[in-house]
What we know:
Layout: H1 7-16, E1 22-27, E2 39-45, E3 51-55, E4 69-73
Antiparallel strand pairs: 1-2, 1-4, 2-3
Amino acid sequence: MNCGLNKKEIQEIKDKFVPGTKIKLLKMEDIQAVPPNTIGVVQFVDDIGTIHMNWQTGSSLGLIVGKDEFEIIN
């Protein structure tokens, strides 16, 4: 959960991770985590800053800025 983010930080995440942005997962600590190096596409960023994804595995598990490790790919 992204309780520590303020409105400006959340807006910056929304501006950076627009729908359609491709992301490669590097590391996620979650029991349902997708494997490292999985590619996904941003669906949207919600009002607490979670990046909702559509992963190539079929998962839709969201990313948490500051907790999960990932990078934008072209």
